[in-house]
């Protein structure tokens, strides 16, 4: 591996979040493949603070199957191997997502051909990692903001049953993996959250093997979702596990002490909401350092969204989570 210079001490010198979390709740992060391969400090902090990892991009369809006849496994295999070597739970992300459909897939193909293609892809990927991945995001972002099904190639060509089919195919390929539906904008009480609740009720009523609900949580420092704990509890009341899957809290630049303080409170608020629900299984950040965050590229004028700064040193948000977990009261869960 090529190594970047390490300016700060390599061994973390702060309390590790993984050691403070309840034993039944994983704390994870999305992993940037380049940083993992080239930065020793990144790897040290990753394995010190977290006990679960998600592939940021390495397991998306466009990455894994660039042509119809070619799979490229190196990046995903490397991450799975790293997770196993370091005792980290591996979360698979994601099997069906409208943004990761390879460009060679054509909507002009028949419904039968597209259905078989999707089945083959899900079966191939899940089978390859059978027994090595504890949970999969089977379908990702299938809802519009109003809670209706998103208009995608799969809905247009296969109809709404493609969602149930995807779960059944994944379950057949690895019966022991937990299968999640994942979406953004549903962490608080919104129209999308209402639609997600309706969809899950319908799927479970027909025996679809859906085992969990993932709430992404791409938040803004000055906008707190409405009643996160109460909303998560609605899903828990169905007897289904819940998870925060992609949390970050972006700040409108420039940073100020006030913005960092409000960011810290929002991180703590989200952790409190998840832990307040008895079926909370994991709490995952979408990257842990500003050095490799996706936010500046996707939200111009925003940044500093992670628990660690660009030098991979903990920020106020990290300290807030440590303090709250040590005191056994991660923030006020209401609001």
From TrEMBL:
PANTHER family documented for this protein: BETA-XYLANASE, GLYCOSYL HYDROLASE
GO molecular function terms listed in the Swiss-Prot or TrEMBL record: endo-1,4-beta-xylanase activity
Top-level lineage group: Bacteria
Hydrolase keyword on record: yes
Source organism per UniProt: Micromonospora polyrhachis
Hydrolase as UniProt keyword: yes
Alphabetical GO biological process terms: xylan catabolic process
SUPFAM superfamilies with a match to the protein in the record: (Trans)glycosidases
Descriptive protein name: Beta-xylanase
UniProt family annotation: Belongs to the glycosyl hydrolase 10 (cellulase F) family.
Catalytic activity: Endohydrolysis of (1->4)-beta-D-xylosidic linkages in xylans
Spans traversing the lipid bilayer: none
